[in-house]
Specification:
The chain has a single domain, classed as Carbon-nitrogen hydrolase (Nitrilase/N-carbamoyl-D-aminoacid amidohydrolase), CATH 3.60.110.10. The protein has eight helices and 13 strands. Helix 1 crosses helix 3.
Length: about 300
């Protein structure tokens, strides 16, 4: 049995680094206290770090990107300590990071109980990330071997693209940290997450930012909820929904996944979407056109 915790996370104004450390430590302690072994924070949840440099910096789009990037190393050290102290895996809230390029990448970091870290950068940017943010695509997709199984990460918009999900089809668990402004955005990501669970016959966990952040141009409005999804098939709920949080209510959403559930559904499920993927016609040449118009041109 693997127990997952996905966050509906409210960002806020931080008065000091101690405030941030206490906040993250409290969230991790709460989930670990409920027996969670894998904790997922949302996309861009790290933007609250910009408030440590004051309201002018937090409210300026470009300056806030740099302010957050400058504090990621300290945030990573904190998450590594907490993962080791509580013997859990933690996917920290993603952050804009200037990783040697002229523009930042959007990077999620997964910490093991050993304190070791692996990272995943977002692949495809939304309109707002392209302009005015200027966020760049980063390192390619990776599959992370853990004691809980193989884990992949698709950051928000990435979860809406089937070929990215297919590239991670060996994953037992996909993590989808998200940050969406409107209800439609939340549902786009949730539908993408559920589709990836169906296609790859795996577990997909989604985390969201929630609440208003008037101090930020970047993440001023947030709508979402935590959720954990699987294929609607053998060993999983008929809806595919293992757990779903209440919309816009801060806190953790928990789900337990029976040991071997993914392996079993892939081997003996009613359908075999993952194995049958290769049977799809490849390319436009596989499409035959028919014309049923009354008056053809």
């Amino acid at each position: 049995m693997v127990k997952l915790a996905t966050a509906a996370y409210p960002m806020g104004v931080l008065e000091s680094w101690a405030d941030y450390e206490a906040k993250i430590s409290g969230w991790v302690a709460e989930a670990a206290g409920q027996g969670a072994e894998l904790l997922l924070f949302p996309e861009y949840g790290a933007m609250e770090l910009a408030t440590l440099d004051g309201p002018e910096v937090a409210g300026d789009l470009e300056r806030s990107l740099h302010a957050v990037s400058d504090r990621v190393a300290a945030a990573d050290a904190l998450h590594a300590r907490l993962a080791a102290a509580h013997d859990v895996y933690i996917c920290a809230a993603s952050a804009p990071i200037f990783a040697g390029g002229a523009r930042p990448v959007n990077r999620a970091r997964l910490f093991a109980p050993s304190g070791e870290m692996a990272h995943q950068d977002k692949q495809i940017m939304t309109r707002f990330e392209r302009a005015p943010w200027g966020v760049a695509a980063g390192d390619p997709l990776c599959l992370i071997e853990t004691d809980l199984g193989r884990i992949g990460i698709l950051i928000c918009y990435d979860s809406e693209f089937p070929l990215l999900g297919r590239a991670l089809s060996e994953a037992d668990i996909l993590l989808v940290p998200s940050c969406t402004e409107a209800l439609a955005g939340y549902w786009r990501v949730r539908i993408g997450a559920m589709a990836r669970a169906l296609e790859s016959q795996c577990v997909v966990a989604m985390a969201s930012t929630v609440g208003a952040c008037p101090w930020s141009e970047a993440v001023d409005t947030n709508t979402g909820a935590g959720g954990v999804f699987g294929p609607p098939d053998l060993g999983f709920p008929p809806t595919g929904v293992l757990a779903e949080g209440a919309l816009n209510v801060p806190g953790w959403t928990y789900a337990e996944v029976p040991e071997g559930a993914v392996e079993t559904v892939r081997r003996a499920g009613v359908v075999a979407n993952r194995a049958h993927w290769v049977e799809q016609p490849q390319g436009a040449g596989a499409v035959t056109k028919r014309d049923l118009r009354t008056h053809s041109p």
